[in-house]
């Protein structure tokens, strides 16, 4: 059933072996999924190291060429194809199945191979307006669309290829925007992602990442982005949101699935047999969407049905090489099952999916004391602990302690979620076997397997709560609370708590940041700023009553809602935790009382403080970890800050003092904010952007000048420039007038002194907070009046500064 790559390969091999067979296809042509690809689409052949063994061939090429080749090979092998054969039901048992078709006829079969794929069951738009007539889930021929504003929703291969197809002929005049829910293109092939970014760089396409469609109207679309909601013209929406197995039909014939999740796949044996004896599943419905895999499975399943017992999958040699040298003398199949059973995030994968997954990952054995990774080292992969355990060294000095992570769990998840450097040193506590999963493979796993996504979220939430609340809590203490914990995406400006409402749930800021406001004298007054790692909501939980303030997202954020009843039960069991919450609550009440008192005495001052805080949040301070501010009542315009920045950074300033926005006397110049989740890290091919031990985001010498970071930064604080010739030192300039003097050399001096030959390559230039230089940021040290300061938002946006008259 199904004449795509898997089904066609199975039928061709049955024909080659002289086995009685019939290939049922509901359309009037072979391989309907590929037939419906956009015209002229180039089809890739990945993974490149995997060989094809089958009676149909496959080489990368255009859709039309591949379909023609398969049609010729089907005719050559005398494949028995029946078109317009839509299956309505299957009854019977192994050796005597009856397949009822929509035309009323019945096909009898001893065995059945399901190769029907998932494309007939696409995921649909869920936002308001998602059912309008100009929303479509397929693109047949990009050339049909001319001079349209088109929004492609989805950053997988299909969405990217559709978007690129719509701009392939620039004469068509289409304006194309691609909306991707994530920051990365985890589902896409690397070549597709690079082609998309190149099109963005050329100005041919607009990318909105970490974005979500919220409203579709005739002629318009509204998308929520990290900077807030944006509404733009849209004549057509092409939604490529992936697909799910046709579960209703598959379950109707008796097959069981691995779980109740929509994305789950049927339970299968290593030989592709389902829970119904005699019915086999291959291809995308088995969780193997890549064409090479599908074709090989078609060959293999016919061999298995024919009685083969020693047949090894085509990827066996590759996996054997990856697993060579590990202790235990296990076969590839045994290793795959061992890893799947022992590592919790992999338990939702089938044995077949595990083969594909392991092609992207590495398994390593460690001895007791071996370092797995060091604190502040660069790395974004996550490690699954298959055997043994690891020790995590946290804290420093006298507060240094070791936490043991047991078998089955993961470690390294901070780099996976935020892209930050390793936050701790991790060593093997005993002889251990770990599976290292690259970040993109882990993101694909979380995107496609609900169980993996839920497990990662649960583990990261648990560890955040243990770190934040302390008070001697253990993972077992949090079991009840985490059972009902809910992770929520919060839009910019959206409130998670409103002043005056009932409710006593606790909210933890997982990423992003929140601001707290209170109505005083009929006006909203800014109370505090809550960065990631903060919690809120304890007042109503402990003392009852209505919410005393409004808490809303400063930027697009993620919070964890903890059920109030279960948290109260935890407080009863852990009085030391209640004591901590009461102390925090007392501090916040002091702030509230102080604000109300000052509002009565100095209303204008409080209003000004709130207005300044609102302005800073609007300027993106909500996601900063360090920001440069200039007091314009003190600034004399000497430009010492810019000159000092250039002098300590190879003659190129990372600061534009005059650019940026000003409110009252407070100026936010163009300088890196060192964001909590840096946009510039989203797609750096050489992985040249890192975060230092003090939170500074810096670019190292491996930068290739691709410009992705500059395009991804929403604050325009990254410039692309070639390093100027080395200047003579300041003493030579002061005494002899040699060189251009302090600051950036002008264009004339650079042109006169540039090296002969090719123009020096451009690289990305941004503030690195003068990392490794004594005395801290040069811009602050060089300011003669103290107008320039660098602060974290939580330090600056606090009532304590107003309390001190600052």
UniProtKB/TrEMBL annotation:
Q: Which Gene3D superfamilies match?
A: 3.30.70.20, FAD/NAD(P)-binding domain, Jelly Rolls
Q: Which residues form a coiled coil?
A: none
Taxonomic lineage per UniProt?
A: Bacteria, Pseudomonadati, Pseudomonadota, Alphaproteobacteria, Caulobacterales
What InterPro entries does this protein's entry cite?
Answer: 4Fe4S_Fe-S-bd, 4Fe4S_Fe_S_CS, cNMP-bd_CS, cNMP-bd_dom, cNMP-bd_dom_sf, FAD/NAD-bd_sf, RmlC-like_jellyroll, RnfB_subfamily
Q: Where is the 4Fe-4S ferredoxin-type domain?
A: 626-658, 695-723, 761-794
Q: Tell me if Iron is a UniProt keyword of this record.
A: yes
Top-level taxon of the source organism: Bacteria
Give start and end of each Cyclic nucleotide-binding domain. 345-446, 469-588
Q: Give UniProt keywords alphabetically.
A: 4Fe-4S, Electron transport, Iron, Iron-sulfur, Metal-binding, Transport
What protein am I looking at?
Oxidoreductase
- Per the UniProt record, the source organism is Brevundimonas denitrificans
